[in-house]
Specification:
heterodimer, A: 263 residues, alpha/beta, Rossmann fold, 2 domains, B: 540 residues, MetI-like fold, binds adenosine-5'-diphosphate, binds magnesium ion
Chain lengths: 263, 540
């Protein structure tokens, strides 16, 4: 047993993007040599100004877009296409209006070899994990934005992923709802009751990032590169009103100058 | 009593035929739409084909198709399939186009969710694409049902040469009643058909409310599109060429929508030029195929007949000229009425609540079925007033009945979609009725009017095809005009002169297609450049 744990420590990387270059077909160069690594047990944040390529990067990491150069590795194996092991949660809240909460969650298990009963109980479990106990029968139109985003997160959970990719998951929620969800989410993510090993979250909200992340990658410039990487060692739970927090926040801000065009 | 059972069965058969073919189109359309979002190459061919077939009223090619079904398959099955084919071509294009556009506009995020879970083809269709397409399909069902029913009288009974072919349905049953002069049964048939149509419209309206509630995305759902619709300005082009205003408007609206969201993720083509060549090549191939088909059909006719056909061409063209004048007349009358009535209903909510369902039912009630009885009732009186122009008047009326609804709908929707600021401006300036119409309402609904006009033109041809030569419309009376290409084609078919019918159809098809492409598209461009207002609400 001991040896195995030690062995895992040697190569701790869950998801890794190495030397990513990408441009859209209209010739717009989005990335130049991006390197990002998410280790087991870590909450990674990627920040950068709007339009810099954060969503594009998550899509590359999740296998939804192919990089022009560079590779993405999941647990040491090259990732060529989307897989349930890496779950993407979108910036815009994606629920399917023609299904109730439970069916929405079951969606991520449909392609697996599972019985309906199994799926149902798993969906219930995922919903209760995000605090939606008893709301299984509601349709998205009957829910608030916060509830719908919880459904989307539950759907991602139900697939038993190793990695969560979250694209500004709180951007469309009002501040109160977002704060509630933010506080829940770290605990849920790393409760140890799921196979989840790591989270990569994209955001342009520095406070949110400081509150949650262990490591922060800062993207800037056009084409975008990683202009900085910050380790956040503040103990949890973190209080956004503390002096220490604010000092860290100021340090982060200094990275976020307007993007410069290279070449 | 037995007659009523027979009538009921016939109505059911006809309804089943139309609805069954609509369902078939819907199912086939899902797979075709899926193929076209997966393969650009397929998409190009598919869309161009729809564009062509949609712009030519297929009924003019019916005689040829008929011959194929009767000679190749034969028997009752051949006749049934021929009828089905005609109805199918009347309903299918709207539906296919609507499905294609729905699939094309599924938000990228939703696609990623199903990709993330590694869904196979059927699961993707079942959980994502099909439900997403439901509101679109529903909006297309109203006009498709009307289009489908319109042709049943001609598809269920037709004559080629000395043969009469028929297949069971209200069209053929009614035909027997008319031939035998069974007035009571005729009335019962019209009544039962009416009940069936009203029932269908009521169910459809309810379903459409349900579908909109259940299947449309929430307002804060992702608005990003999966890329533009393919091919030049597809949406707009189809908008113009499609047969019904509802889909047309939906498409037009979607086109504008897509334009606003520049932030698309689909990789854009680097080599625009190459695509142009590819489109051109495919267009040429298809055109060549169509021409080859036509030419081989015509050359299969004896060489001596060639000369005859060429000789008749000038008179065919003159006939087409007459027909264009008829279409123009129908258009002007339809527009005048549509503008006043459409405006009145759009601004009077209470009247609208009753009249829209009534108009929907009327438009679904096949004009060719009740038209003969209008004819019987009014002919002596009308003849007293109009004398030799009586027949012409009836043909124009049939054209009018069969097309009015389209232009009406278009305009009505246009007025509904006017931004409220415009109304405030008119009130502010205290504009009078006609000034308001001329300066505000008509310019701001211009794109809708244009699309209404093009569909009116398309369905007017169907009306003329039926009306210009209608032997024994009742008793020994026949309805026929002095000259017209539709009449020539009708007579050629009835007398079994297939070569002439085919030649006439071909000339017609080419001219109509060229006309659609050149004229309607230009008008739509103009409408967009000059008159487009901010798009207001769109309600199907
Ligand atoms: N399909 C596309 N074609 C061309 N450029 C695109 C496409 N999608 C996004 N972009 C551009 O790529 C850049 C990065 O976009 P995105 O990843 O959404 O940024 P972020 O998520 O950081 O706001 C933006 O400038 C955007 O306009
Ligand atoms: Mg983004």
């Amino acid at each position: 047993m001991e040896a195995e744990i030690k062995n895992e420590n040697v190569s701790n990387s869950v998801l890794e993007a190495d030397g990513i270059y990408f441009s859209y077909d209209n010739g717009y160069d989005v990335f130049e040599n991006i390197n990002i690594r998410a280790d087991s047990g870590k909450f990674i944040a990627i920040i950068g100004p709007s339009g810099i390529g954060k969503s594009t990067l998550l899509r590359i990491i999740g296998g939804f877009l192919k990089p022009d150069k560079g590779i993405v590795k999941l647990m040491g194996k090259t990732l060529h296409e989307p897989t349930p092991e890496v779950a993407l949660i979108h910036q815009s809240i994606v629920t399917f209006p023609w299904m109730d909460a439970q069916e929405n969650v079951m969606l991520s298990m449909k392609a697996k070899d599972m019985s309906r009963d199994e799926m149902e109980s798993k969906a219930k479990e995922a919903l209760s994990r995000v605090g939606l106990d008893g709301f299984e029968d509601l349709y998205p139109k009957e829910m608030s934005g916060g509830m719908r985003q919880r459904v989307a997160i539950a759907r991602a959970f139900a697939a038993d992923p190793y990695v969560f990719l979250m694209d500004e998951p709180f951007a469309h929620l009002d501040e109160l709802t977002a704060e509630g969800l933010r506080q829940d989410i770290y605990n849920i993510l790393f409760s140890g009751e799921t196979p989840l090993k790591s989270v990569i979250m994209v955001s342009h909200n520095l406070t949110e990032v400081l509150e949650l992340a262990d490591e922060i990658y800062i993207l800037n410039n056009i084409p975008a590169t990683v202009v900085g990487k910050v380790e956040v060692t503040m103990p949890r739970p973190r209080n956004p009103r503390s002096d220490n927090f604010n000092a860290n926040l100021d340090a982060l801000y200094s990275y976020l100058t307007p993007p410069r065009k290279k070449k | 009593m037995a007659a009523i059972i027979l009538i009921t069965l016939a109505v059911l058969a006809t309804v089943a035929r139309v609805i069954g073919l609509i369902i078939l189109s819907i199912i086939a359309g899902w797979f075709l739409a899926y193929a076209s979002i997966k393969s650009k190459f397929f998409e190009n061919i598919y869309i161009i084909l729809i564009e062509i077939f949609e712009s030519v009223p297929v009924i003019t090619f019916f005689p040829i198709v008929l011959i194929i079904f009767i000679t190749r398959i034969g028997g009752p099955l051949g006749v049934e399939l021929a009828a089905d084919f005609l109805v199918f071509t009347a309903v299918v294009w709207n539906i296919w186009m609507g499905e294609y556009q729905a699939f094309k506009t599924v938000p990228r995020e939703m696609v990623e969710v199903v990709e993330n879970s590694r869904f196979g083809l059927f699961a993707k269709l079942r959980y994502l694409y099909i439900p997403f397409s439901v509101p679109r399909i529903t909006a297309n069902l109203f006009p498709s049902i009307s289009d489908g029913f319109f042709y049943i009288t001609v598809s269920e009974v037709f004559e080629v040469g000395v043969h009469t072919y028929q297949t069971f349905g209200i069209g053929s049953v009614l035909d027997t009643f008319v031939a035998d002069g069974q007035l009571f049964n005729i009335e019962m048939a019209l009544l039962i058909m009416g009940i069936a149509i009203v029932a269908i419209i009521v169910v459809l309206r309810e379903f459409s409310k349900y579908a909109v509630g259940r299947y449309t995305l929430d307002t804060d759902a992702p608005v990003m599109k999966r890329g533009r619709l393919n091919i030049r300005e597809t949406a707009r082009v189809f908008a113009v060429l499609s047969k019904n205003p509802l889909t047309r408007l939906a498409r037009y609206y979607k086109y504008r929508e897509a334009d606003k969201h520049e932030e698309t993720y689909e990789k854009k083509e680097k080599k625009r030029k190459i695509y142009k060549y590819i489109y051109a090549a495919i267009g040429i191939i298809i055109l060549a195929a169509v021409l080859y088909g036509a030419v081989s059909l015509i050359t299969s006719v004896k060489l001596s007949e060639w000369g005859v056909l060429i000789g008749k061409t000038p008179s065919l063209l003159t006939g087409l000229g007459y027909d264009y004048i008829r279409v123009g007349t129908i258009l002007v009358i339809s527009m005048a009425i549509a503008i006043f009535l459409g405006y009145y209903l759009a601004v009077n909510r209470r009247a609208e609540k009753y009249w829209i369902p009534i108009i929907q039912s009327l438009s679904a009630y096949p004009a060719p079925i009740y038209f003969p009885f209008l004819f019987i009732l009014t002919e002596p009186f009308i003849f007293g007033i109009f004398g030799v122009f009586t027949n012409e008047l009836y043909v124009l009326s049939l054209g009018f009945i069969s097309t009015f609804y389209y232009v009406f709908y278009s305009f009505w929707m246009g007025v509904k979609a006017m931004p409220s600021e415009y109304w405030e401006v008119t009130r502010n300036l205290k504009l009078g009725y006609f000034k308001k119409m001329r300066k505000v309402v008509i310019p701001s609904t211009f794109p809708y009017l244009i699309s209404g006009i093009s569909s009116t033109i398309n369905s007017a041809w169907g009306g003329l095809m039926i009306g210009e030569y209608w032997p024994d419309i009742y008793g020994t009376h026949s309805l026929t005009v002095h000259a017209g290409l539709m009449k020539t084609i009708d007579i050629a078919t009835a007398t079994g002169d297939i070569a002439l019918a085919a030649w006439g159809s071909l000339i017609f098809g080419i001219i109509v297609a060229v006309y659609s492409v050149l004229f309607t598209r230009k008008m739509m461009d103009l409408a967009q450049k000059k008159y487009v207002a901010e798009e207001g609400v769109y309600s199907a």
